[in-house]
Amino acid sequence: MKNKQNWIFVIIIATILLIGGILRFYKLGDIPPGLTDDEVNTGYDAYSLLKTGKDQWGQQYPIFSFKGFGDYRSPVYTYLLLPLLPVFGMTPFWLKFPAAALGTITILLLYLIARKLGFSRVSAFMAAFFLAVNPWHIGMSRVAMVVVSGVFFLCMGMVLAFYAKKRFIFIISSFVSFALTIYAYPAYLVVTPLCLMFVSFIQYQRFQVTRKQLVIGFCIFLCITVPYLLSSQSSSIGVRMGQVNIFKDSGTIDLLNEKIGACQKIYPTLICKVTFNKYLTFGSKLAVNYVRHFSSEILFSHGTITQFSMLPPRGLLLSVEYFLFCIGIFYAILSFRNIYSLFLLAIILAAPIPDSVTGDGHYGRFFIILPFIQFIAAYGLGKLLKYFGRLILIPIVVLLLFETFFFEVEYFSYYPNSFSRYSHYGYEELVTNIYKIKDVYDEIYVSSRVNDAKQYIFYLFYTKFDPFLYQTDKSIERIVEPNGWIRVKKIENIYFVSSFPETDLSVDRNKKILYIGAPSEFPKIFIPSQFEIKDKKEDVIFRAVTLDDWERCVKESYIEEIK
Known about the structure:
The protein is of the alpha/beta class. 60% of the residues lie in helices and 6% in strands. The chain is globular.
């Protein structure tokens, strides 16, 4: 009887994994359509490593970070791509495969952790199912972003620790896995230490690990993470914070100065400085950002304005999941003296801190709160089962399945058609067209004024530009901006510019020049296009116009006006 029951449990978790895997791998190379600049940048670094042993900037096998666009990217995902490149080639599927695979495996890890946290088997199954059908996790598992690997390594670290039973290799592997979360995404500096202390305390209390093993494990964790934190390259943290943190928001500072100026016309300077100062202004903004992460708008109804490259406009959670999460939070607060409830609450409260310093709910930076939302939701479900019995599970599962069905229909039909430009659909076609005609023109100018997507990296990726040539060619023009961002201005005869206003048109009549930009960057008069790039809605993203056609049409329009 017990063996039969075990087989049923295996079938249930296998079914959940199958559902999660299908939702992550189905049409993986096509949806989201296109590739973002971050994804392509990571892919070209992996390609460069394979071909030259160096990243695109000539750094030999970077350990702590990749320079990227000057934002110093975490290295883990690039190295995950490296062994897969000879297998899949430079395709969207190759870029996204590690995220989809790790995202699927995390579902199983979540179930194993839930059991060790004392969840009933039903609640543990539901925790895994919540993650399997969670829109946020599905969306992130289908793009080449490093944060999914962070969740995986965190869960793997917890599983290895919980199932160690004094086996030294498991304990060491657990601490290594926890350390890799920091390399995967620096924001885990907030969450990982809490998880590490919790699992160590629990296992030590249960006599599953010895004090000596814990000391060795913590030493290994520090030996791996401290060099990263001290490394100048790992200014990944410092540089990125300097580029996006709210304390350097010029708009907020200008408004503050305006308020102080208006105040001083009526009140003494002391009152104005006490009322309007940077500490109160940015402190309140930080508090508002923090609280907004838990708003129903982000989690339940609308999501964030930054998510369209991986999800349509909708809440990051399913409504059933959000409802159970709220119930779970309520009961966790009531039983906060319980070590498990205290741990989950601490993680939930700590997770929004890194993103609050940079904004009010970025889908990637706030992703470190998963899978703890699913644990809390399963905890809330467990309380409902306790009070109302297992019959309540039927409507919950039915609603969850219906909601998942409606989300997937929208995600695989409406979303890729209506939001393709957010995932930079059309850039492959743009690069293909440029590559075909680049020898026909003396100069080609590609504008990034309307769609600042660092177009040069798409040219490198889609043409499989020789990494050694890119690293060594002196004719390639690069600039480093004051905030650390790197811009590539010229590759071959292609110029990547911030804009090309009409007044800057070249006067060299001996050159054949092509301008490529958004339709809004050209005069409203009719100018024939050499080619046009459209998104999936058939809206024009880019137009290619020759200098001769541009000037001729402007002159004809002027003459027509005079007549």
